[in-house]
Structure formats: structure tokens, C-alpha cells
Structure prediction request, 500 residues.
Amino acid sequence: MIQQHINQWARQIPSWVVYVLLLIPAPWFFYLGATGGLGVEPIKALEHEYGELALKLLVAGLAITPLRTHLGINLIKFRRAIGLMAFFYVSAHLLVWLVLDVQIVSQIWADILKRPYITIGMVGFILIVPLAVTSNNRSIRTLGPKWRQLHKLTYMVVLSGAVHFLMLVKGFQLEPILYLAVILALLALRLPKKRRVAA
Amino acid sequence: MAHRWKNNLTWDDVTPEAAFLNRRQIIAGMAAGGIAAGLGQSASAAEGLEPNTWEEITTYNNFYEFGTGKGDPAKYAGSLTTDPWSVEIDGLVDKPGSYAMSDIMSAMTTEERIYRFRCVEAWSMVIPWNGFELADLLNMAGVQSGAKYVAFETAVRPDEMPGVARNVLDWPYVEGLRLDEAMHPLTIMATGIYGKPIPNQNGAPMRLVVPWKYGFKSIKSIVRITLTEDEPPTSWNKANGKEYGFYSNVNPTVDHPRWSQASERRVGGGLFSPRIPTLMFNGYEEEVASLYEGMDLSKFY
Prediction:
């Protein structure tokens, strides 16, 4: 069975490998941006690369539980690494926006308050911070059952990321709609079985 | 009538292409020196109006008929057949009909126009266009007295334009100008850049350039020009009327609902490119402000 192969293979890979592999794109894209590899307007390109990678990792993190419950593939040991690296890229995306893109402090505040897609993006960032801070064994121990409750915020974070993307594109574009559809599907798989059958 | 408008930028301001790289390094050095000395440059001085390189102008484009990515037009527009090409000029004109591009070119006098180009997405370039005044073309067809607006239409060719397979916009792309805007000496039909034929991704064989309006008004690869009495529909206004008005004049005091228009970034400055203030009417206030006298520009955005 392919699941067993994957599970066996996953058992042999330490989770630090995931951190290392997922760290590589950050300096790589920055290097590309600085040397012309991201085109003639590298600031927006870098912002988009970090943002889209963050969204992909959020979706990947959301897929872990359905993969186990529906397909028997157990990748749960990588979930913390994926979640923390998603936080890392959300932060990198935000930093590029603040420092390289908008630059002007008064305009940053105006944008956060006045532009709904930026407001939603910021809400997503604020919500992911407590998740990143509590992504360690000690927090799981001290928070007990509250930890699970707290980490349900992930759903809001992922949704806000996808809506942020959907709201910022011009015209009718497919890509952000596909992200949102995948996220809604992954969330739907979490609904109790009975309700899903009824729906 | 050619040469009605005298550019304050001449070819003396343009560096030979081979020297681009060197010049960029020198300018970067000058900019760094300026910052170190704490010099506050005025907007016009800071402009310097150094034209963007051929590479910048031809690899960073919005031409959704070839895809929504900035690099898509350069990648896919090669498939567009631009020769032969003809433009239908109809509506309220004396001599309606199909005008062959070759006939238009032999009738028009092309000249160089180095213009600022400001995209609604808050990036900008300086582009050395070659072209002729739209007024000359319209006069060739003979504008009738009842005409108040000019409508433009881009080619739609599913076989040659991969982007039109998706309904990102309602194809064909259409744009429009008020007749006085169209007849203004700053308004040109561009057929070249840097003295070379205009590349497909920039709107070959002929595209509009209205330098005081956001870039999307400057419709590309035009196949139809119609003189009308009523204000014609425009593509982005149809797609999202709250964000894109008919006029779409560059105006730092009227924000796009999703981002500020107060500043812009000149393409080509790299990862640490500074924002520069956006100028009223993109720096052409002196020439065009009178067209909008008495109009509330926050209402007619």
C-alpha cells in the first residue's frame, strides 16, 4: 500500500529536514530579486513569491489532518514545521511590503485601515502570531485542552490569506479562486461525517 | 500636424543603448551620494527623466490578452500577426473605412516623444516613443461636427492571444477619450520605441499613448477607432466601475480604492528602489489641466 510506504518514509525523515528545505527559498528568492532573476520590478515579485509560498504552506498544513483521516497518510510530525515556516513566510511577505514596497510609515497605516484587502491580510498575520508562539511542546503542556481550541484559529488564518489574495487581483482571475476552493474543501472534510452525508 | 508639442526632453537626454549599464551604475552612485549628503530633491529634479531601458520597457507589461503575468506578454505576444494590419475608422467621420497600416504610416509623420508612463498599479517608466499625433489620423478620416468622443478597440484573436481564453475582462478590450483629449497634441499613436518598431507586447503595430492618464487608457494593438456622440464604454470601467472611471487621469490626490496613488515606483531601481511622489496629471498639468476646468476630479476619476 502506498500509504504505508509514505508513512514509513516519513518516519525516517527527521522534521528538521523540513525546516531546512523550506528555509532555502527565502534567501534564494531574495538573491534572485537582487540579481535580476525576478524581472525588472523585483519588489512586487519578491512580495508575491513570499506571500504565495506562505499560502501554499498554510494549505499544506490544513491538508495534514484530512490526509490522515481520509487516506491514512500520517504526516503529522511535520505539521509544526510547516506551520512555523508558513508563519516565517507570512512575516517575510509582510516585511517586504513594509520595508521595500510601501516604505512610507504614514501610508502603511493608511493602507492597513483604508484598504480592506490589507486589513484582512493584517488580521491574518495577527491571528497567526499566537499560533507560532505556542507551537512548542511546553505550550501544549501548559495550555492543555485550550491549545487545541486556540489552534482552531488556523482556519481563520488560512481563509484570511486566501481572501486577501482574491481581493488584491485585478479582473476575474482563476488562481485565487482555486486556492479558496481547495481551502473550503479541506475545511469541509473536517465537518462531522453525518452532516457531510446530509449535505 | 506634427511637431505641435515641443518636448523638454530630447535625444540628448537619452543615453546610447550600449551605455545603459554604465549609466545606471553612475546614476545609482549619484543617488547614493545625494542621500548621503541629505539633499532634498524636488520632484522634478529627482525625476531626472532618464528613460527606462529597452529590456525594462519590453519585459514588464500589462497586456491581459496574453496573460495576467507581467512577463506573459513578452513570452506570448510573438504569435501576434501585425503585418498585414488594418484599422477600421468609422462612426462620425467623413471617410469611414478600413485603413491599411502601411497607408497610415506613409501618410503620417512620426516623431519622438519621451513621456512618463504611469500605471494605475503605482509603477512607472519613462519611455521614448515614436509615433504621430492621434489628431493627424483623425483629421485624415475627417471628424464630423457631431462627434464628441473617440472609441478604440483592441484585436481579439483566440488563436494568437492565449489570454483571451479566460474571461479576465470582457473581450475585446475597449477604451475611449473625449474628443478634445484625443485631439490634444500630447496624445499620440505610438508605432515605435527607441526608434525601433514597437514590439508586440507593447501594442504593435499601433497603440494609443495618453501620458497624463493611467496606462490602461493607452489601448494597444488597435483595430477599430469609432467617433461617437456618446461616451463609449471602457473595459476596466465595465469590469469594476468603482475603481476605474472613464477619465482615469493620473491624480495623486484621488486614491484607487485598493491602494494609494500618492506615490509610485519607477521600474528599474532594483530591490531597494525608492518611492517617488506622483505628479498631478503625471507631470503634464501645465499642458492638460485646462481640459478639466470646473470638473470635480474626485467625481470624474
